[in-house]
Amino acid sequence: MGRRVIFHIDVNSAFLSWEAVYRVRFLGERLDLRTIPSAVGGDIAKRRGIILAKSIPAKKYKIQTGEPVVSALRKYPQLVLVPPHYSLYEKCSNAFMEILKNYSDKVEQYSIDEAFMDMTEMELLFGKPVVAANTIKDEIYHNLGFTVNVGISDNKLLAKMASDFHKPNRVHTLFTEEIEQKMWHLPVRDLFFVGGATEQKLHSIGIQTIGELANADVTMLKAMFKKHGEILWNFANGRDVSEVEAEPPENKGYGNTTTIPFDVTDAQTAKMVLLSLVETIGRRLRKDNVSIEVVSVGIRYCDFHYESHQGTLQSPTNITQEIYEMVCRLFDELWNGACMPIRHLGVHTSRITHEAPSRQMTLFDNKDYEKLEKLDRAIDSIRERFGADAVQRASFLKQKQIDHMGGGIAKSMK
Questions:
Q1: Looking at the annotation, which residues are catalytic?
Q2: Is the CB of residue 201 less than 8 Å from the CB of residue 195?
Q3: What is the pLDDT of residues 226-273, one digit of tens each?
Q4: C or N terminus of the chain, fewer CB within 10 Å?
């Protein structure tokens, strides 16, 4: 086998682009949100929630994905804000992935708006890598109306780095032999998964660029950052051996995942993200009048490594609190501590039952399940009538970067 060829395909400003395409193509609007400072945000009417996606013109005003809506409006009061429509985004994502699968049987959906493709030895079918990437990019634009960036390399890390180069609607290569020319001059913050705290620590020891990090003493980095220091050093040198994992068969269950817009290194924050995922799953279960027995938690770390852990509930349930308690227990058993930042979290459920659950009580179980069920139903009713943001847990009020009903298909109840 020749050298590996890996593509990373990333939708440009996904939620914003999908909103724009829908409004222009199906609602007949003349103004394209992608051409003006605009953003998809949380509760626009109440100036709450976070910025979920922004247009490229909005970058001029330093609007950031993940920042509170009220903060973005302070920066640019004329920012055009539109509410999210997650069911639309799910359909766009599925159509996007179906096109990719026409070019490779190894497609790994990394999040709702990005994927890796193993294009090794596909040259006879689709031409040289750059030609194939442009073909895919153009087909997505002509058929679906939105643009993507495609990064090409011999490993996943560098392919993802390449896709983040100049946007939008571009194809970039970053093969191992190109990293010194194309990557080493970049600020160290541009390296995949170097967050603000890590950047400051690196600056404190005189490391400003990715090249300086690549040529630093790895022993010193390990002393400062532990295992994460060696990972950073390998990333700066373009080293990554992870494989493109083809999508597994769709589970017969309910799930939700999210790629977090910042590094998570503590259990409390991770569990808040997991709670936001469970909120959505619980609502969907109750809407369909089903219960689940098996719960699994998945963690993807900053080096692309993925782990999951599952457990079986004592009785079938669709109660949010009961599912969340199991999720927290599974997370605690699975998480490797703060050794490596978390970038992606998922919750999946299976073993669905459509029958009214018969609860097996235990001597030490004193929960009022009937009360919890009534509470969930009441909250569902309010959200159905007044919108998903009408009711949220108090614990989310201080978590401005975490949507209280998060994930790729959060709030997708239509």
A1: 114
A2: no
A3: 888 898 999 999 999 888 988 654 446 888 888 787 778 889 999 999
A4: N
